[in-house]
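Researcher: Good morning. I'm working through a list of sequences from a screen, and I'd like to move beyond sequence-only analysis. For each chain I'm collecting a predicted structure so we can compare shapes side by side. This is the next one on the list. No need for commentary yet; just the structure.
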Amino acid sequence: MDLQNMKQILKKIFILPPVPTLLIAIPSFALVIYVLANGLENEIISYVSYILSAYAAIITVTGITGIVRLARQGINSHPLVKKALDNPLVGRYLREDMFRAEAALYQGFFINLLYAGIKMFSGIYYRSIWFVTLAVYYILLAVMRASLLHYVRKGEKGKRSEWRRYRLCGIILLFMNVALSGIIVLVISMNSGFVYPGVLIYVMAMYAFYATITAVWNLVKFRKYGSPVMSAAKVIGLTAALVSMLSLETAMLTQFGSDDGQMFRQIMTASTGAGISSIVLGMAIFMIWHSTKQIKQEKEI
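Model: Good morning. Structure tokens for this chain:
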């Protein structure tokens, strides 16, 4: 079998049309939630649910563009949406990716501050060091977004200035990854994790999956615009989403895991944490290396 045939086979397996993607992804995610909610981690169905959910996550990420396009086609045909598009500001927001990205910077900044405030309050109220540490992490993410917002509002010109902002975000991410690694080590060594009371865990699950899928899609999408500042903003969004997935996993394992499954919880947390830390480290190093290279090229022109 040659490389071309292999690519075609992998494409048929992992890149599906929107409707089959939804028909597979929704039941798969529901199944893994059912397994965790009912303490079935050691049953055969749990391993099936993990495999299905992993496959569902892959096809959701690869097929998110088609899903969004399908949804937009249906939404744009609605009379209220057509009327909204007649408004210049709304129409610009819905049609122009760069304008929407700038608006998302403000949105992300305030969401990060709100999220940090909730985590800090929860940490103090529940006396949880994990929530307090996460609050500090999200405050640092907000600081990076504030730096990019300052650039956008100041209206600095020139690619060199943009690449400098891009590199600064990479440097901050590099140091933040050290703190993230420390959080992961503490969670594993103390065999503890995040706790969401009541139904809040299901709300956080929906948010975490939505944020991660959207962040991956935006990161890939905005590369074609060649804006280092907007690319940095999307990297920040992906970092925040990955940390949300980590906290969600530890919360689910803590809340729904059985008492005799401590080793399983530690292995899962260590594996996911190492993967997320490696991704963030790789993005930070790439941002620093790539921006430094681009700045040198700008100087030579």
